[in-house]
Amino acid sequence: MEQYLGIDVGGTNVKMGIVDAKTGQISNFYSHDTVSWRKSGKFEERLAEAITLQLHNNPAVKKVGIGLPGMINRARTSPLEITAIPELNGMPLVGFLSARFSGTEFYLENDANAAALGEFYFGDQDYDQQKNSENYIFITLGTGVGGAAIINKKVFVGGNGNAMEPGHTPSINKKVLERNIGKNELLDMANAMRKEYKGKTIVPQDNTITTTGLVAAATQNDELALNIFDNVGEILGVALAQMIPILDINLILIGGGLSASFEFILPAIERTLDFWLTKYHRNGLTIKRATLANDAGLLGAASLCF
Question: What pTM value is reported for the model?
Answer without folding.
Answer: 0.90
